[in-house]
Structures are given as structure tokens and as C-alpha cells.
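Help wanted!
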Amino acid sequence: EPEVTQTPSHQVTQMGQEVILRCVPISNHLYFYWYRQILGQKVEFLVSFYNNEISEKSEIFDDQFSVERPDGSNFTLKIRSTKLEDSAMYFCASSEFAGPEQYFGPGTRLTVT
Amino acid sequence: QQQVKQSPQSLIVQKGGISIINCAYENTAFDYFPWYQQFPGKGPALLIAIRPDVSEKKEGRFTISFNKSAKQFSLHIMDSQPGDSATYFCAASGRGSTLGRLYFGRGTQLTVWP
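Answered by r_m:
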């Protein structure tokens, strides 16, 4: 069964450093998403992406965040200058059609020290 | 602002029992209500979903009940098994969101004792 994959599974970085989280969505999916889950809290939407453009972003997705589809298979989330409060599990998701039936990857645990 | 409220935070059920998790929402623009199951170290997996044109949807041992007037929906797990032990999230999505932005509840940690 096709699945969303994410790398790395765990990333430790120092405050102020840039990180790039990588995702490979399901191959025939065209719609991509990033969510995050701070430990013990709910999953929160960050951004949706379609046709090489951001479709929607939340109030969390400020100027330190950016997304990119650098090639036909990868989808990345860049955090430019990490803060302690960016420590969270970051999930990539994809969907075949426009809509909420989204399939999630296993997540990247980001720890900012 | 909490778009989706979920309860209980944790639930312990004996094997063979019924697990019930409840969610409530405020935004009447929501028109899609999925439930996700998450095992430790894994991402949320879509379990079952309902749209408000029906009051109930059943898939195997999992049933969603939906009450549009009360703006509430719930997940029932019949004949609960130890393998069902996981965290369950309700979510909602709807009109006004171009690509189905999901609003999640806080999650319910279900433990099924053998």
C-alpha cells in the first residue's frame, strides 16, 4: 500500500539554525500539507500546497517557514531560524483530490536546543 | 479558539467492551468529520469519516454517530480489542477552506485491557 514517507525521523538542532524537513507524498497525489503536533497537544495545520503554490496557511506559518516542491517527488518544509517553541512533531500529508481525505506520514520529531 | 472539542482525554475499556469518544464543533461551515487513529511513533491514520447528510456510518467495528442539530459526533468502537489501544483524534473540515484544512481535537488515549 502506498504511503507518505518523511525524513529524518528525528532532527536535533540548535536555536537559530535552519532546518529542512523532507516528505515524499503518495505518488499520484497532487495536494500536500504540513501539520505539527507539540508534545501532548493537538495536531495543528500549518500549510496546504497545490500546483506549486501555497493554497492556505495558518497563523502559525509565519515568515520563518517556507515550503517547496523541488522536484517531482519531494515536498519540503524549511524553518529558517528555529526557536525553542518550534520543537514538535511535524507531519506531512497528501491527498489525491482537493479535500480533507488526507494521508499522513510518520512524522519528523524536531528538537530545538 | 478551539474549533473541535474532544472528550474524554483518556479512556480505559475492557476487552470486548464498547469504547465511546465524543466531539463537538462550533463552526457550522464544517461538512466533513473524520476520525484518525495514531499509534506511538506513527502518523495519524484515517479510520472513518462522515458527512452531515447522514446520521450514522459504520465500518466493521467502528461507527460514527452524527448529530447535526447538537453539532456533535462520536466514535463507537464495538467489541474493543487490545490492538485498538491508540490515540484517537476527531477532526473537522469544511467550506471556506480551499483544500480541506483539518481542525483536530486534542485526542483521546484509549487503552483496552485484555
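OP: Thanks! One thing I noticed: Chain B has a mean pLDDT of 92.
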